[in-house]
Amino acid sequence: MLLAKEPEVIQDAAETVTTWKDKIWNWFTDMDMWMNVLYAGIKIIIIFTLTRLFVHIVFRLIDRSLQKREKSRLQMNPRRLVTVGELLKNVTTITSNFIMVMLVMGELGFDLAPLLAGAGVLGLAIGFGAQSLVKDVITGFFIILEDQFAVGDVIQTGSLKGTVEMIGLRSTRLVSYTGEVHIIPNGMITNVTNYSVGTALAVVDLPFSNSRKLEDSVELLRRAMQRLKEEKEGIPQVPNVLGIQSLTASEYVIRIAVECPPAIRSEVERQIHAYAKEALEQEELENQRGHAEI
User: Fold this and answer.
1) How far is CA 144 from CA 85, 130, 170, 293, in A?
2) 162: helix, coil or strand?
3) What's the pLDDT tens digit per position in 66-78?
4) How far apart are the C-alpha atoms of 71 and 84, rounded to whole Å?
5) Cα angle value 270/271/275 (rounded, 5°)
6) pTM over 0.85
């Protein structure tokens, strides 16, 4: 019985092998299929090449645009230009690669309609759920692009004032003069006062008794301000002793003013006070010595 079935089993196996061999042979000799594969491969290579070429051209345009901006009359922080350039290049690369992958998948026979529909729904959900994040990122991008302030600048936004320690796409970090660290979402930065742009005017008013001669007071302060300029490198110029600012029955006030960077205005005013006080103390000490010798 078993011996009788053996020829049939062998015959079925032989037919199966022959069928697979024919299928494989037909697959290898199917010219239409190979032509489609060849065309798809050529299209994929063309898509990849055009994508790389497009990215390269956009990179060159970004570099040239930033070089022109750097050489223009508007002075920008070179580090800020590098940051903007890298950000634009990253956006270009990600967008171009996404489009390239979609086109390649289409050439490979994938149905893109469900993928695009799913991506659209997902993007819509993320957009509704992360509106504040998107707002922060967009605001941060324009802060960087427009060079509104840089790391190291002293700024004030709302009631917060301090030195900019970090600028990110989502938030900005400020350090106040007392050491507090403020993390501010960029979307909440609606107006900014930058104290590090241009120059500020440090103004100090010093009162003197009417019993003291005006010429002596002015001369004393001028010598003190000259010494301040010589001993302090951060003072850009000799503070100007302007003269009497106000006068009462008991005293007169002399004003001193000097232009300086906004970030050090308070320090300059403190230095003016200190040097004026030291000059007065030195004059008083010399007067006491003169009286003692007499």
Assistant:
1) 10, 21, 11, 68
2) strand
3) 777 666 544 555 6
4) 16
5) 120
6) no
